[in-house]
Design the sequence.
């Protein structure tokens, strides 16, 4: 087998294994619930019977490994169990399926994330590469100072400043991003403009700085000096000699920041009341609705692992040492 | 060798620096600090002062409730009152104490755990290192904010719960860094020389390794502090961090956020939720400025060349 | 080849009072302080100097190129009538790679890992637009053949990491030759190579330069190497010219005392003695890193008491591994190490404090051998306290005593390693070893990172200490001049095996085993005809 196929398969296996361990951690969350949890969910007046039935539904009467496999089995088939909310002390169960809660929001979150990524990634790469090429110029210094400040600023601060200027003082954009499935794409984009802009500002700052550092690091290689001494133009040096070696670091930067985007989404969704998974998760944490928290956590962690895996694989397949073994 | 060229070892040109006491060196460094770093240090000192002397500086109590909610700026309440009638300015001052105090405690805890484990892993490089490194890899495969949210949903949001959860999650990053910088030091010949001399492990750790990994760790402490500080503010903002009636900047932003909608009618009022947010931003920017300067100074590395 | 100098053509390159600055510590410092040079067509100029002399900076300056963080401050750089210093880079690029080419020190780093050798070789000549891609490729193969690369038809299709260091260096020369430049700058092209590889690379570079009548600037720190290549030699130190002369003239009667000091190590001679009383015996040792990588095969070495045994070999010969086995850092798979008649425990942690005290080690890089945050007093004081229990004033007094022994004084007590010169650092390391009052000191390439004159000082000090204290040395080195200077006995190692051990005089006189012959004959000598004669000899041997 070509070593590259072997390495990629190894990485994929490692990714699957990590996902398995992560699911184990997320699952075991329920293990640590305090003993009186049933009462807490069902209310003080819950009878012993209803509490026992609830515990049975959660499978607390079964050994842990069995429950894990049941849970994973369910997850694989898209069944994350039922939400805790909507349960009453009387034992009447008006709870909804976690999947039904999460599925529409998943779509919304992915919409917001991809809209942001489409703007942020090209912008950050452009800024990162140009500041690296013209480093220590006024342009570089200004961009650097601005991004350093943005990085150190909490997302919600950026969000509220934007609201103040773009939605409150001037009512150009809506501060409430309450999109739903019935809206047209244009309307969705208009409604999501502010959350997307907030995320873009935060992500671009990170990504641009990392790209700049990676490119500068690359340009310091002796083979770049050699290329210059061969009399190649700046464009040729960048395109022929720097770029083929830049895929791995750039992929890492993008993946890292898209993963960061996944986290940033949570806060931005709350600020703009955007109906996404992040907001759902925060609400579930407040009400300690564990099945919903687990499902959301698994979604975020899974995305995160997948993005890093993709970056890893890009790094491998563009590495000439692995591509062309001895 | 000819007679014209006399050689003396003591006279050989070295990069001899003038001997100065530690204090003199620090003073010299401070004098040469760039304006950004000076600004950063000034801001940090002011915050520290406010945090330490909060009870003496605040005009009203932390959770003291007045009759008038959403009072305007000026008058009895410098920055007005919040939704249940607490003085914003006083809560801002107490918030410094609470938010910074909790973030600092968390960072110290995270360094104590992550730092010592990282050092041990780097020195032993056996199965202990393997197990810990793999464990950290897995823990870091979950975004820390998501992990924190999950843990908080299980253990509930108490102040100590918050501190321990964030510290544990953050310590994975400290572990990685400490292990990486220590590995660079462990392979040095002087560590091998100490081992060949027959020195015991604790001595090697304390005398040979620790002094050399300190500068990057100090810089990392600043960065981790900003990160932890932002994370706690974010969690409080989401309503699952520091709980009322304790004043903290993150929750203050959330509690007063709706005022921004009325900026057209009451611009000052709309600034109210931005005050604590700006306080957070200012401190992290200041810390970042200091760290930037410190890193450049100790590593001697500029991104040029 | 030096006879040709007079017959060479017009002036190709002229540098007048060139000053080059570098930016460090927040200000511009002069790296090159007004150097002039003239180079005629087809002539080779050697630029020699030790670390920090500014040779590379001057070499690149000859192309009108300044590294990032450097600037060509003043003076004239005239290449074939064109002033390069003030010329905009856009115009200079037209010359680079076509009329002036560069061969870098580390070919492994200077080849782009992402492209095949052939594509990189023809890149510059294609840009000139004079040849088609097909012609350029055919020409590259011819050049590979001229550079004696194996399988010249196909080697160009390999990636840099698929080719050995010596071959890469030759491919880089071929790349420089591809556009038939008027001038090539060779920047320490053989420094990273083993001596036996160096000979072949030197020979093919010299042939290529002669064949195409190319002018060259050859930069190196090794006088014997440059003597093979250059018609004239210019000696640089701290960015200033010390002297310039025809190669033979320079070797015969150097004028400047600094030039003379470049021979200094070769001026030490030691009468070899031996003894039957062995302080240390390595007996039939096999050693391996991990499970599979076996690096020592049945190695036996004996160290006579109070004498110096030099272990010589190229990289990968296992000489440093042998030292690791002696110190206990790498427990052997088979065999044992006997010290003063008692077998040492294979592992470091099972050895007694007394055994550890009696064997001390000095490292190649004094920089990394001392904790940068400990003062000289702490560095030398620690073994005194650890082994001898000396503390306070008695310890300090002993440290001062040791400082005097290594020809330094108490003024150094409070200095940090960063405040010492290279030679002083190595002396402190010697003092630290002496502080333990050892019977055996292992010296691992202790002089190879130092300038010649400093090397001489260190070697003389080590000899004197042996006379005074009767300490034995294991001296690991790849440098034959150092071996000549210090050893009583020599051990030659090759690919993890001992080729031979014996008295210096006996090893250094024929008949030699095959590998010893190859190794010794490959060490460049201070004779401009050495390479020519050696190649002739080897060719005759092959033929007959």
Sequence:
């Amino acid at each position: 087998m070509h070593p590259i196929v072997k390495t990629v398969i190894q990485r994929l296996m490692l990714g699957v294994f990590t996902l398995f361990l992560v699911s184990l951690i997320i699952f075991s969350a329920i293990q640590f619930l305090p003993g009186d949890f049933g009462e807490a969910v069902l209310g003080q007046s819950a009878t012993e019977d209803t509490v026992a039935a609830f515990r049975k539904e959660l499978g607390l009467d079964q050994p842990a490994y069995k429950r894990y496999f049941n849970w994973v089995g369910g997850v694989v088939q898209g069944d994350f169990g039922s939400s805790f909310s909507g349960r009453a002390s009387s034992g009447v169960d008006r709870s909804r399926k976690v999947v039904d809660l999460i599925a529409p929001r998943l779509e919304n979150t992915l919409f917001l994330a991809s809209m942001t990524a489409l703007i942020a990634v090209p912008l950050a790469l452009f800024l990162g590469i140009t500041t690296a090429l013209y480093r220590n110029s006024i342009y570089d210094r200004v961009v650097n100072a601005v991004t350093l400040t943005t990085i150190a600023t909490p997302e919600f601060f950026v969000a509220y400043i934007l609201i103040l200027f773009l939605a409150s003082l001037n009512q150009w954009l809506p501060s409430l991003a309450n999109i739903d499935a019935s809206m047209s794409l244009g309307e969705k984009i208009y409604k999501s403009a502010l959350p997307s802009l907030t995320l873009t500002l935060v992500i671009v700052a990170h990504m641009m700085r990392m790209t700049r550092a990676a490119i500068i690091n690359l340009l310091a290689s002796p083979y770049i000096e050699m290329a210059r001494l061969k009399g190649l133009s700046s464009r040729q040096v960048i395109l022929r000699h720097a770029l083929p070696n830049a895929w791995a670091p750039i992929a890492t930067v993008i993946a890292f920041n898209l993963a960061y985007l996944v986290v940033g989404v949570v806060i931005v969704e709350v600020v703009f009341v955007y109906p996404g998974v992040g907001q759902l998760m925060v609400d579930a944490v407040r009400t300690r609705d564990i099945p919903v928290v687990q499902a959301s956590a698994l979604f975020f962690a899974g995305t995160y692992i997948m993005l890093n895996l993709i970056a890893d694989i890009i790094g491998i397949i563009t590495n000439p040492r692995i591509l062309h073994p001895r | 060798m000819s007679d014209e060229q006399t050689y003396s070892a003591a006279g050989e040109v070295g990069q001899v620096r003038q001997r100065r006491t530690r204090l003199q060196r620090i003073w010299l460094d401070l004098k040469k600090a760039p304006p950004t770093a000076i600004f950063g240090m000034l801001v940090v000192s002011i915050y520290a002062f406010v945090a330490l002397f909060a009870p003496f500086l605040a005009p009203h109590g932390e959770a003291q409730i007045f009759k008038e909610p959403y009072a305007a700026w000026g008058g009895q309440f410098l920055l007005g009152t919040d939704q249940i009638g607490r003085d914003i300015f006083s809560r801002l001052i107490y918030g410094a104490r609470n938010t910074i105090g909790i973030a600092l405690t968390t960072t110290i805890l995270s360094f104590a755990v992550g730092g010592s484990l990282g050092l041990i892993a780097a020195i032993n490089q056996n199965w202990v290192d393997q197990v810990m490194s793999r464990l950290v890899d897995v823990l870091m495969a979950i975004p820390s904010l998501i992990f924190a949210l999950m843990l908080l949903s299980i253990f509930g949001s108490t102040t100590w719960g918050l501190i321990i959860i964030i510290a544990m999650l953050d310590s994975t990053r400290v572990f990685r860094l400490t292990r990486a910088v220590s590995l660079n030091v462990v392979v040095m010949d002087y560590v091998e020389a100490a081992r060949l001399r027959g020195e015991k492990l604790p001595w090697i750790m304390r005398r040979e390794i620790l002094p050399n990994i300190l500068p990057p760790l100090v810089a990392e402490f600043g960065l981790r502090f900003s990160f932890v500080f932002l994370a706690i503010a974010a969690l409080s903002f989401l309503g699952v961090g520091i709980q009322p009636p304790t004043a903290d900047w993150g929750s203050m932003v959330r509690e007063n956020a709706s005022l921004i909608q009325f900026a057209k009618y009451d611009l000052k009022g709309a600034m109210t939720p931005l005050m604590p947010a700006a306080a957070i931003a200012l401190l992290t920017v200041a810390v970042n400025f200091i760290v930037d300067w410190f890193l450049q100074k100790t590593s001697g590395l500029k991104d040029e060349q | 080849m030096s006879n040709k100098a007079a017959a060479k053509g017009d002036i190709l390159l002229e540098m007048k009072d060139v000053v080059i600055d570098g930016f460090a510590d927040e200000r511009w410092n002069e790296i090159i302080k007004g150097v002039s040079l003239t180079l005629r067509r087809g002539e080779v100029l050697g630029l020699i100097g030790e670390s920090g002399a500014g040779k590379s900076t001057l070499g690149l300056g000859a192309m009108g190129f300044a590294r990032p963080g450097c600037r060509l401050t003043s003076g004239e750089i005239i290449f074939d009538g064109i002033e390069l210093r003030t010329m905009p880079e856009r115009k200079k690029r037209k010359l680079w790679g076509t009329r002036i080419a560069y061969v870098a020190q580390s070919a492994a780093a200077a080849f782009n890992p992402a492209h095949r050798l052939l594509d990189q070789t023809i890149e510059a000549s294609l840009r000139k637009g004079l040849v088609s891609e097909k012609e350029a490729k055919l020409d590259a193969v011819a050049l590979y053949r001229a550079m004696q690369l194996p399988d010249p038809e196909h080697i160009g299709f390999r990636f840099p990491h698929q080719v050995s260091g010596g071959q890469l260096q030759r491919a880089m020369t071929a790349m420089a030759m591809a556009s038939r430049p008027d001038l090539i700058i060779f920047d320490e092209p053989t420094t990273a190579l083993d001596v036996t590889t160096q000979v072949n690379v030197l020979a093919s570079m010299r042939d290529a330069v002669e064949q195409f009548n190319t002018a060259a600037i050859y930069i190196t720190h090794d006088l014997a190497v440059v003597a093979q290549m250059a018609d004239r030699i210019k000696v640089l130190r701290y960015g200033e010219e010390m002297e310039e002369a025809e190669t033979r003239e320079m070797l015969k009667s150097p004028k400047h005392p600094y030039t003379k000091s470049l021979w200094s190590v070769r001026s030490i001679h030691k009468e070899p003695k031996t003894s039957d009383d062995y302080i240390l015996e390595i007996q039939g040792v096999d050693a391996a890193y991990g499970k599979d990588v076996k690096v020592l095969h049945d190695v036996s070495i004996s160290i006579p008491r109070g004498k110096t045994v030099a272990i010589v070999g190229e990289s990968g010969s296992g000489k440093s591994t042998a030292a690791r086995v002696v110190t206990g850092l790498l427990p052997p798979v088979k065999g044992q190490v006997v010290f003063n008649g008692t077998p040492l425990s294979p592992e470091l942690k099972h050895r007694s404090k007394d055994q550890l005290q009696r064997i001390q080690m000095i490292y190649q890089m004094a920089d990394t051998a001392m904790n940068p945050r400990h003062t000289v007093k702490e560095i030398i004081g620690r073994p005194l306290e650890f082994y001898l229990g000396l503390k306070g004033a008695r310890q300090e007094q002993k440290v001062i005593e040791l400082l005097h022994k290594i020809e330094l004084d108490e003024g150094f007590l409070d200095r940090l390693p960063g405040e010492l010169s290279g030679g002083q650092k190595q002396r402190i390391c010697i003092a630290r070893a002496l502080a333990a009052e050892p019977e055996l000191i292992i010296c691992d390439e202790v002089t190879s990172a130092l300038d010649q004159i400093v090397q001489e000082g260190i070697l003389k000090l080590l000899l004197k200490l042996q006379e005074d204290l009767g300490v034995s040395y294991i001296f690991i080195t790849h440098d034959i001049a150092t071996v000549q200077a210090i050893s009583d006995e020599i051990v030659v190692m090759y690919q993890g095996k001992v080729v031979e051990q014996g008295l210096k005089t006996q090893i250094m006189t024929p008949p030699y085993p095959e590998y010893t012959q190859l190794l010794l004959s490959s060490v460049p000598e201070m004779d401009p005809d050495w390479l020519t004669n050696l190649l002739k000899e080897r060719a005759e041997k092959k033929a007959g």
User: Anything to note?
Assistant: The CA atoms of residues 72 and 277 of chain B lie 19 Å apart. Chain B has twelve helices and no strands. The domain at 50-299 of chain B is CATH 1.10.3720.10 (MetI-like fold). Chain B has one domain: 50-299.
